[in-house]
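Could you join me in thinking about how sequence relates to backbone shape in a protein? We need material for that, and I hope you will provide a protein of your own picking. Label the sequence line and the structure token line clearly, so we can match residues to local backbone shapes. Would you write everything just below, so we can both look at the same thing?
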Amino acid sequence: MDQTKSDSASRIVVLASGSGSNLQILLDHKADSWRVVGVVSDRPSAHALDRAAAAGVPSEVVQYSSFGDRAAFTAAVCDSIDRFDPHFIVLAGFMRVLGPDAILRFPNQIINVHPSLLPSFPGAHGVRDALKYGVAVTGVTVHFVDEQLDHGPIIAQEAVAVLPGDDEDSLHARLQAIEHRLLPHVVTQLARGTLEVSGRIVKGTVST
């Protein structure tokens, strides 16, 4: 590797399963305090891998079907992450739930972006569930990852109104615009060391 953890810029590894739009935002973001050094996906067909290749960022694929259970899959993903020697890991549309071993190996180093105002509507269908419930407001949450699904300490949230006539695609598009703005700022604060976790409370300012 051409950079070690002693260098000034924090090393970021991104986990993605799909199109990688949040990955692209991180790849395009110009920051002195951090850079994306690796991408891991559970799907060899993920467009996120193409985005990584286009940016000259190395990637690895760890397929769930190659392992007998979630624990073995998690260990393999963590081994893959370790090879990139990261400071922080960003789950950006990664559709597999990692087991507790990931938290033990990377405590307060993994963050996730989720399309709802957690703790409301966790899981893979946050946009659909919000529409089905009939809420007037939903939003975006960036949080630390813990052993439970979409549960860890919240770093930043931003509300988005649900408009009359919204469907899953239209609402998701507005939520993504917020994700694309919020996520790089959170990563920057992580890299600068301005965030501190105390129980479920994250101390520090995420300015956008």
About this structure: The first strand starts at residue 10 and ends at 15. The first helix runs from residue 21 to 28. The beta strands are 10-15, 34-41, 59-61, 88-91, 110-114, 137-144, 154-161, 196-198, 201-203. The mean pLDDT is 93.
